[in-house]
Amino acid sequence: MTGKGGTGKTTVAAALALALAAGGRRTLLVEVEGRQGVAQLFGTPPLPYEERRITAAAGGGEVRVLAIDAEEALLEYLEMFYRLGAAGRALRRLGAIDFATTVAPGVRDVLLTGKVKEATTRTSGGHRVYDAVVLDAPPTGRIGRFLNVTAETAKLAKVGPIKTQSDGVQALLRSPMTAVHVVTLLEEMPVQETVDAIEELTRLRIPVGHVIVNEAQVPLASVGKVTQAELKRGLSAAGLPTDRATVTGLYTEVKNYLTRQELEDSLRTDLAELGRPVLELPLLSGGVDREGLDLLAAALLAGPTP
């Protein structure tokens, strides 16, 4: 799940995890940006670097969550592939781990995507541990670089564990198992970033799923023009004040609303031209709580309106 900052991609990612867990399935919701946004959504303390159950889903399913810490992931990587558990901890005390994950963002992204790949493909008793993994990924401005970093790493590492892991992540990200959904608002900048991100992901051969319009509102009016005389008659019929200030103020609000509606219709056309399924999620007037997440999950399960 990606989207311009402020579009609600973390909220939509959590709702998708709930939707995919419905009916007795198990999903893993992963965040990689260190913001602890998932913990805030579900009202829990900051999440440690471990997979843990965070909530139940409809029909007996469950959602687990993992907040990946780049330093911990590097220590895990050193132990797994090089048996450097003690040495890795010593490097951490010297500050080398922080240096590697902060100064070299490419290394950080390889660790993050590698951990997601491991969770996605992990099996137990011959079956995958998770029915689905939902990644709350970086925003659209960085999504291409984040998901393609393993391809660049693979060019540098010709053999060994890094090469093997990079190849495995590349294969997963470009397989039918993966779909990058892009969250947007019906505003010009988020829509433009959505267009740019989809073009970039397509160029990188990373599968794109749905365009998800968040916080969509049902239009209150469909007329193209309203006159002050019509508003005055309507106010009078409703038994409301019809003085000049009231009519003029209402007229200004109606004009602004219709202008905004015209812009949103134009942006919907731009999104439709991308050739991807578009799904609209309602604005949660009461704020985002568990009930709101369930409403969004139900809308995601219903899919796009024909």
Automatic annotation (TrEMBL):
The keyword Protein biosynthesis does not apply. Gene3D superfamilies: P-loop containing nucleotide triphosphate hydrolases (3.40.50.300). Keywords: ATP-binding, Nucleotide-binding. InterPro entries: ArsA/GET3_ATPase-like, ATPase_ArsA/GET3, P-loop_NTPase. It holds the Pfam family ArsA_ATPase. Coiled coil: none annotated. Residues 1-155 form the ArsA/GET3 Anion-transporting ATPase-like domain. GO terms for molecular function: ATP binding; ATP hydrolysis activity. Signal peptide: none annotated. This is Arsenite efflux ATP-binding protein ArsA. It comes from Asanoa ishikariensis.
